Every structure is written in structure tokens, then in C-alpha cells.
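hey
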């Protein structure tokens, strides 16, 4: 697979996943920094014209740089329950139940990276491919977030519950609010598809369902925005709990 755009390519280099660069002739300080990083890592660099990159990325905004990258490692759910980098914080996991828009998935991954989540669980089918579009939308977070791909989300939720992780589904019709949850506990936020929300079996498997108050005329937020809202409530609670009294 490949990623394109300055930030995604830079993050792929940082993560050690880039195997080749294709760069169009242009004068840009940020691209030159990327080229220097690639040279230091002895990654092959191919100079091509902009039209070649246009064809490769199907007209996407590539900013003159494309990187071939190794496929991301597919994690097991049991690994996600363990916080990354040897941390001791309770796991915080995001579960995507049929989120198919690559721009939404990319934005969610960007928020997940910023919030320091333990990982993301996605379904093998009815999910956006983790390709260059997601990489661009994630501003490079795709190179860093741990992802587990599963066959069945409902069964994945059961596995999380067996591991002591509270599973909280986000639903517009829920009676409780996302601020009512103790996010300092081992937790998984379950997000449904754009428009249709959580599927019935997934809703039923969640330990709890919560909503975000809507005070205007529309009845829901974009799923990536909703993910960011809830993740940063979890961050706020965890930082508050960690502060000395």
C-alpha cells in the first residue's frame, strides 16, 4: 500500500514503515526534510513528474510526495487491552461498528492518536480500507495507532468484556450522557455507522449506551466529531484522577 501527503509520509518514515519514496520535482522545505529523513534511513527515492503522482493517487492532494509502506501489523484484541509503550493506564479502546467513510475513519484515528488510546477495533467487512485516503485524513496517525481487525464486532465486544473492559456504545437515543461514565476504568467506546448507528446485536452486547446532548436543530454529530468529544472526556477524567490532591 502507499500513503501520500507531507504529514502522512513523514509519520510513515518516523514509524519505520516507509520502503520507497516517489517525489515530484518541487521546491518545498518540508519535502526536503522528508528527503533528508529518507536518505538517512537509506530508503530509495524516485523522482517522478506530478502527473505520475496524480495518476497513482487518482487525483488526490498528494503535495508532491508518495511513500510505499509496509502493511500495518494487525493486532489481537488481547494486545490492545495492554496499554502501548508499557504504560500502566487503564486501556481505552475505540470500536468501529461499520464505519465505512475513509475520511471519518482517518479523523477518528487522528483523535485516537492524540488521546493516547490503546487501540482501535474494526470489522474486516463494511469498514473503510486502511489505505492512502485514510492515511491522509488521519494526518499520519494511521502509522502509529494500533488496529485489530475482526470478523465479528459483537464477538469482539464479548472478548473485551471477558478481559474486564467496560463497553460503552454511543447512541443518540440513550438516556444517559457520556459525561455520566467513569472513563478512568478500562473502557471501550463503540461507534456505529454513519446514519444507521449501532447494529442491534452490537447495541445489545454493550454494557451501557450513552449519548451526547444535542441542543440545536440536528439530532446527531458526525461520527468522527462524536469520537473526539467522548475521547477527550476520557482524557479529562484520567488527567484529573492523575493529578495530586
Amino acid at each position: 500500500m502507499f500513503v501520500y501527503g507531507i504529514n502522512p509520509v513523514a509519520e510513515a518514515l518516523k514509524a519505520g514503515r516507509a520502503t520507497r519514496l516517489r517525489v515530484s520535482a518541487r521546491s518545498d522545505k518540508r519535502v526536503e526534510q522528508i528527503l533528508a529523513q529518507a536518505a538517512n534511513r537509506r530508503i530509495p527515492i524516485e523522482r517522478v513528474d506530478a502527473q505520475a503522482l496524480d495518476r497513482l493517487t487518482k487525483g488526490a492532494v498528494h503535495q508532491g510526495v508518495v511513500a510505499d509502506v509496509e502493511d500495518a501489523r494487525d493486532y489481537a484484541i488481547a494486545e490492545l487491552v495492554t496499554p502501548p509503550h508499557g504504560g500502566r493506564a487503564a486501556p481505552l479502546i475505540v470500536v468501529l461498528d461499520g464505519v465505512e467513510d475513509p475520511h471519518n475513519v482517518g479523523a477518528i484515528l487522528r483523535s485516537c492518536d492524540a488521546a493516547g488510546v490503546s487501540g482501535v477495533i474494526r470489522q474486516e467487512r463494511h469498514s473503510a480500507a486502511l489505505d492512502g485516503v485514510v492515511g491522509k485524513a488521519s494526518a499520519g496517525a494511521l502509522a502509529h495507532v494500533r488496529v485489530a481487525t475482526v470478523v465479528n464486532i459483537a464477538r469482539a465486544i464479548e472478548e473485551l468484556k471477558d478481559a474486564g473492559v467496560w463497553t460503552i456504545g454511543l447512541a443518540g437515543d440513550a438516556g444517559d450522557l457520556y459525561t455520566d461514565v467513569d472513563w478512568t476504568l478500562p473502557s471501550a467506546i463503540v461507534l456505529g455507522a454513519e446514519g444507521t448507528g449501532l447494529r442491534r446485536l452490537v447495541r445489545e452486547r454493550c454494557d451501557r449506551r450513552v449519548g451526547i446532548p444535542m441542543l440545536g436543530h440536528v439530532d446527531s454529530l458526525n461520527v468522527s466529531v462524536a469520537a473526539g468529544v467522548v475521547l477527550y472526556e476520557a482524557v479529562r477524567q484520567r488527567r484529573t484522577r492523575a493529578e495530586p490532591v
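The radius of gyration is 19 Å. The mean pLDDT is 89.
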